[in-house]
Design brief:
With about 350 residues, the protein is an alpha/beta fold. About 55% of the residues lie in helices and about 10% in strands.
Length: about 350
């Protein structure tokens, strides 16, 4: 557990944020979403209904339009539903077993292919909303930012980590006098309403919005097709026991890295950032902050940490900035989007 002074400082900041969040019209909608989701899927994942869990109900929960909160957890639905009898059995042990949550967490991650923290903890929350909070990249980032991320023992397993994280989440929930769902929504609300981000969004032109959308898809494309890309031939996306996709939007105490990879042969790390609508100074500053964080928190002393910025239209300002920090191994790649229209022959003969 973090020290008491850090915790109280974090709590004070969150109380102010919660006050602002409750004044936002989104708060009422989020509360309504919570009631609907807990009512519907609390029954689906209840102890008595789990033995009859069907694929349609499980897959529906994984979709953002139904769970109203967790995006992207549907990607491993096919793997998880390959054997529904097995899934029913393992989910029952995971959610309602007699062993400590640390043991149940490790067992579920080991036995269920495609089951990571970002999928496991939402299921825990809807099945047992009074007992378990959410561990994903967003909550992890904010706990680190606030200085209340637990100090794990070296070699701690995912279950041990989650047990300690849940203790912090539980204490924050109780001291803020809210529920786990609202606490998790608070992280997302803060993420979307940081002043610097709000300023960027309000100043976007239509062209900027189009570029931002393309880069969002590029981000997902790189993750989903990594091994087919040139980068994927040399680098492998970083993974952790609790999350095989940890290298996608990896949470640090200074932001989320777009893509984090390790070299397949050499002791090297690669930080990849897509230059969206932010300024050159912000993009370069982000990469340098992430290089420093990885060096201090993940890389071993003999491991090298490099940066890569991917941009659609690199500016002179970006080129000058990268030239000035050439010794830090921050490279630049340009991406191109090709769009073609081909005439279809209508002759059926």
């Amino acid at each position: 557990m973090t020290n008491e002074a850090s915790y109280q400082d974090a709590l004070d900041k969150l109380k102010g944020a919660l006050y602002r969040y409750k004044a936002d019209p989104a708060f009422e909608q989020h509360s309504s979403d919570r009631d609907q989701v807990l009512d519907r899927y609390g029954k689906v994942f209840s102890r008595e209904n789990l033995p009859d869990l069907i694929e349609e109900d499980f897959r529906s929960f994984l979709l953002i339009e139904n769970n109203h909160h967790w995006e992207g957890i549907h990607r491993h639905g096919s793997k998880l539903c390959a054997d529904m009898d097995y899934l029913q059995q393992e989910l029952s042990s995971f959610i309602y077993g007699d062993n400590p949550i640390a043991d149940r967490f490790d067992q579920a991650l080991a036995k269920l292919r495609g089951f990571g923290k970002a999928t496991a903890t939402p299921i825990l929350l809807v099945a047992r909303p009074d007992d378990y909070g959410i561990w994903n990249s967003v909550s992890e980032e904010f706990l680190k930012r606030l200085g209340v991320w637990p100090n794990f023992q070296r070699g701690a397993k995912p279950g041990e980590k989650y047990a300690q994280i849940n203790q912090v989440l539980t204490r924050l929930r109780d001291d803020l006098e809210i529920d786990f769902w609202t606490l998790d929504n608070l992280w997302w609300w803060l993420d979307e309403n940081e002043p610097e981000k709000a300023e960027k969004y309000t100043s976007l032109s239509m062209g900027d919005n189009q570029s931002f959308g393309i880069e969002r898809h590029l981000h997902d494309f790189l993750r989903d097709n990594w091994d087919k890309t040139e980068l994927g031939q040399e680098w492998v996306l970083y993974s952790e026991p609790e999350d095989q996709e940890a290298g996608y939007e990896y949470p640090t105490g200074v932001g989320r890295i777009d893509l984090l990879a390790r070299h397949r042969e050499r002791p090297e790390w690669l930080i990849i950032e897509l230059k969206r609508n932010q300024s050159t100074d912000e993009t370069v500053g982000q990469v340098l902050r992430y290089i420093g964080w990885i060096k201090r928190n993940l890389a071993q002393k003999d491991e090298k940490v490099k940066g890569l910025i991917i941009a659609h239209d690199p500016t002179d300002a970006l080129l000058y900035a990268l030239d000035a920090i050439a010794e830090l191994d921050v490279e630049l790649q340009r991406y191109e989007v090709e769009f073609k229209l081909n005439t279809v022959a209508l002759d059926m003969d």
